[in-house]
Amino acid sequence: MTPNLPGEGHQAHASDLLAAVQEKVQACMQCGTCSGSCANSFAMDLTPRQLWRLAQLGEKEEIFNSKTFYLCSACYYCTLRCPRGLHLTEAMAALKRLAAAEGIERYKQSANFYRTFMDTVRRYGRVREMEFMNRYFMSMKNPFFPLGYASLGIKLMKKGKVSVEIPKLFGKGRFDRLFAKVRELEERP
User: Fold this and answer.
1) How far apart are alpha carbons 94 and 50 in whole angstroms?
2) DSSP state letters, 149-163
3) 165 to 96, 102, 128, 157, 160: CA distances (angstroms)
4) Which residues of 81-108 are buried (b: 16+ CB within 10 A; e: fewer)?
């Protein structure tokens, strides 16, 4: 069983997810502290402050035409520094869930990466690089996709960072309860 992305697997509608983001940022006064605190803002096409304004206005299309929310590294610095105490990192995560729930093409690669990574962790209790990479490349359903990573893979193998040995499973379902609890916590309002 492949673990779901947060927000997947239950009947959350896109409008409900957007409404949750709007609720989280409704008290935003556009001070810009989040933008000034963000370590990744240099790479974003919109500042976090601009993104929150778009969320307040319900401008979903503009939000998803931006790469801002997907560049959030979830460091919580914006949340810690927000003078209104808004849970901005959670709002960014909700936008990621919304993009995944709507199947937005440009975020499909990231969603596949996340699912495959978590599936590997669930199976073994840690990341098994070779299996993770194989599953991820297969999930992309493009035979040429792995070629872009060939030189990196060769470097990692030469340095002994990636092993080709077949790992042993820890036992079927060993981490299922842990993953179920995390999913339960993520789905709480």
Assistant:
1) 17
2) GHHHHHHHHHTT-S-
3) 34, 37, 10, 12, 12
4) ebeeebbbbbbbbbbbbbbbbeeeeebe
- Residue at which a domain ends, from 57, 84, 102: 102
Per the model's pLDDT, the better-predicted residue between 165 and 38 turns out to be: 38
Report if residue 1 sits inside a domain: no
Nearest residue to 16 (alpha-carbon basis) of 60, 51, 50: 60
Last residue of a domain, one of 54, 71, 102: 102
Q: Is the pLDDT of residue 97 over 80?
A: yes
pLDDT of residue 117: 87
Q: Domain tally for the chain?
A: 2
pLDDT for res 1: 35
Q: What is the pLDDT of residue 47?
A: 93
Q: Radius of gyration over alpha carbons of the chain, in Å?
A: 19
| Tokens linked to 5 | 């992305």
Q: Identify whether residues 21 and 40 lie together within a single domain.
A: yes
Q: Which domain holds residue 125?
A: 107-186
Burial of 28 (0-12, 13-18, 19+ CB in 10 A): buried
